[in-house]
Amino acid sequence: MPRLTVPSAEPLPLLPTRLVSLDVFRGLTVMAMVLVNNPGDWGHIYAPLEHAEWHGCTLADLIFPFFLFIVGVSIVYALDSARRTQPHGPLLGRIARRAAVLFGLGLFAALFLQWDLATVRIPGVLARIALVFLVCGALFLKTTARQQAWLLTIILVGYNVLLQLVPVPGIGAANLEPATNLGAWLDRLLLGEAHLWKISKTWDPEGLLSSLPAVGTGIMGLLAGQQLRKTSLEAAAKVAWLFVAGGGAVVLGLVWSSWLPLNKSLWTSSYVLYTGGIAAMGLAALYWLCDVQGYRRGIKPFVVYGVNAITVFFLSGLIARGLNKWPVTTSAGVTNMKQWLYDTLFVPFFPGPYLASLAGGLACVLIWLGVLWLMYERRIIIKV
Q: Per the UniProt record, which residue ranges are transmembrane (predicted)?
């Protein structure tokens, strides 16, 4: 179960023993996730905040792989000392329990206010985070960085072969179309259409087969974290390594995309390299700025989001669903509380639906910032 930590009533320092840049990066990522997931009006979203319709990669499509990359880095910092001094059996048990809690939270969120096990969506963001955490945690304990790099290569090449060369049973030749690719067929076979993404019903953007390359994103985080933990490297060398490796991954991903397009829903191999490379360079820049140069001005909003990232993602989703289910009667008829708040507080005060929608999303981010700030000041960190 999630654990509530309240060590004292004094504010947390901005110089924790943890990696400050990682908290900032995690905070930036989950803040963007809250913004993308909570527009004022789903019909009027600014293009950078909207996912690519199928092939392609927008700013919104960077958020989830960034989070999985961060999961990999976090594993290194959480377990590096323990794996050298403690038996691995209990550590693997802790990893499995945390993964189970994450999966359970995802299932609870899917069932919230619509308790129907026959149609509950089984895949999802938290389910994928749980799987990546479980597999990458075990890999970090049981394999070397070199073995992890080889496994990453095997996963990306093997997944490419599966998507583009293996015929789809009952459909025909291998293809990359939403409902007829190999991953969509596997989801329908093992999970059934009733348990997939309600918008599509025939495929799921967090499906089973695409979870394999998602583990690859986590492995890229493992490799980055292990470089940052090396005591034999100077800080400048660590930053240079991350920039060079990240830049190389971006270039390789773009080259690969000429025959296997960037695609978040399929989590294509080119997408893994492209997004993981950008994440590595972003972390390198923040590491140099926050941990090497000691820069602190203006980072606290991201830190307070970063230390309670899963909490805000989980609760913001529940509250959004609750507002959507809360009926409100107006002179124009029956609507829901979320729509009523948007129509009342934003639409009249902004020139155009896109600005009003953006303002609604930003308001959600700021409201949660206030909540998380109070939690941070009271040293309340909910650990999953």
A: 62-79, 99-115, 121-141, 148-166, 207-225, 237-259, 271-290, 302-320, 354-376
| 23-77 pLDDT per residue, tens | 999 999 999 999 999 999 998 998 789 999 999 999 999 999 999 999 999 999 9
Tokens representing residue 306 in the block? 């970063």
- DSSP-assigned letter for residue 291: I
Q: For residue range 43-53, list pLDDT tens digits in order.
A: 899 878 999 99
Which DSSP letter does residue 12 get? P
Location of structure tokens 């639409």: 347
The answer to whether the CB of 196 falls within 8 A of the CB of 203 is yes
Q: Is 151 exposed, middle or buried (0-12, 13-18, 19+ CB in 10 A)?
A: middle
Whether the model clears a pTM of 0.70, i.e. scores above it, the answer is yes
What's the one-letter identity of residue 183?
G
What is the Cα 338 distance to its own chain's centre?
Answer: 24
Q: What is the 3-state secondary structure (H, E, C) of 29-68?
A: HHHHHHHHHCCCCCCCCCHHHCCCCCCCCCCHHHHHHHHH
- The distance between the two most distant Cα atoms of the chain, rounded to a whole number of Å, is 69
SS3 for 168? Answer: strand
Residues near 321 by Cβ (< 8 Å), separated by ≥ 6? Answer: 109, 112, 113
Are 136 and 98 in contact, with CB atoms under 8 Å apart? no
Q: How many CB atoms lie within 10 A of CB 237?
A: 12
Is the torsion defined by CA of 257, 203, 154, 140 positive or negative? positive
Q: Under DSSP, is residue 120 helix (H, G, I), strand (E, B) or coil?
A: coil
**Domains of the chain: which residue ranges?**
1-50+297-384, 58-294
The size of the chain, in residues, is 384
3-state secondary structure of 327: strand
Summarised one tens digit per residue, pLDDT across range 132-190 is 999 999 999 999 999 999 999 999 999 999 999 999 999 999 999 999 999 999 999 99
Bridge partner list, 5: 381
337-341, Cβ contacts within 8 angstroms, sequence gap of 24 or more? none
